Write the structure tokens for this entry.
Amino acid sequence: MIHTIKKAITLFSLVIFGSAILYNCEPDPDNLGEQLFLDGAAQGNEKSFDITAFNINNNDTIRTDASKLTYGVLGAFNEGQFGMQKASYLTQLRLSSYNPDFGTNAQVDSVVLVIKPRFASDSVTTNTVDDNYTYTTFADGTVNAKKVVNTYPVLKFGKAKRTFNIRVNEVDEFLKGVSDSAKSNAAYPATTLLGTKEFKGSVSSVAITKDDGGAALFTAATPGIRIPLDKTFFQNKIIAKKGQPELQDASNFTRYFKGIRISVDEQDGYLFQFSPNDMELIMYYKNDNTSTSPATKKQTTYSFALGTGNTHIGQYEYNRSGSAWSSAAIGDENTGVSKLFAQGMGGPSIGIKFPKNTIDTLKKRYNDNKAAIISAKVRLYIDKSSWNNVYAKPTAFTFLQKSLSVNPKPNHTISLAFTKDLTSFANLPGFRFYNYNLTNDPPYYDFIVTQSVKDLVETNQSDDNRSLRIDLGTFLTNSQTNALIGPSSTSRTYDTQRAVFVGSNTSDANKAQLLVIYGTK
């Protein structure tokens, strides 16, 4: 199904052309909108033009500190086009209260780390594990019930059925402050093993329901991966340090217990995402109940804080050996390449440039024939010869424009900014800066550049503003206003998608191109 922005285009047309009709009684030859719509009807024509498409090598690195990680990524995935991509995750942890009192003769019973992956909530498998379960409530006393386990597949990118051995290690190096930047390729030693868990790709929750009527008596929290950790380690690392400087404040603690690293042993399988701020680390222990004689043991828990306020780092490893990307042409703004590679999490991006010849041709049509640009889009096709597989095709992109400005020195400063279409029309209902058709053979993607091209053709805008960048991921929005935060705030840091597209330096009929609909009277 193709996604369109008909409503936005209608409004866009009114903005571009309607103002000329309303405010100009005598049309000037350069008032293109009037020339099209006064005393006659415009005829729309679509024509394709050459563009230059090339690969951008990001050197397999990206910022992955807490300010960039809405989600963490874990797992590994290996395929022939991009090679092996492996994701681990590091986090600090803090005490929920400092200088804690664990009571008399405290003894750790167990410690559990809970990771809550994103899962398919509409794909539940329900199993009744106990038909004769007895549940006790304060209101009703003993109730005949059923114990039910609901199992959900984790949302994955890669091979669906693989088992991971998840490993948790203590980090040996201070992870710096929460506001410090961190790169995905940085190495952090983590030698002491704290725990492991075999993970088969699904998470479960437990529900207890009444036999009579089926009403829910108990429902567990969000399904998660529960990883048992070494209780002796926490006995010695935490309980034994009661009253000592290591547990007195956050600064001491994060340098004493520097954090944990979560990784998988395997080199292939899939990648999955989880929320860093929803992780839990719970220590179950007992101590002496001195209010009784003789003293008895009582059970209690202590929760560590793993969420906001801690340093979080995504650590990504790559092995490109033998992959298509390892020998792919990078190209540049002048030559272009035949195949385009795009991958999240620090992998390659796509660069687009409108050649001078293309812009000059459109300018000539505008000046000589009054050919008004009604619509313009960059079209990219999936390269079937390289990316014809069962993996989900990408549906999330960011699209930026290289902006060249002159400062007072006067030196040129180059930066990336939102495209003109996005800044002009993002608030219009239904507006999308890209569309896609995944049912077409091969699938294709259209990136809207109408205003950007009009500015190049119909104004004296510098030709240096002819370059665009396409990345996998989405622009992040303010949770309060839903407005875009900025051009550098995207989900590319943790986006697991990838794909190969047809480039421009090729005779392929599906090569990258600029499609322009223009009107002539």
Notes: Confidence is low (pLDDT under 50) at residues 1-42, 405-410. Residues 72-319 form one domain. Helices lie at 6-23, 32-37, 231-237, 250-256, 356-369, 420-425, 450-458. The two ends are 33 Å apart (CA to CA).
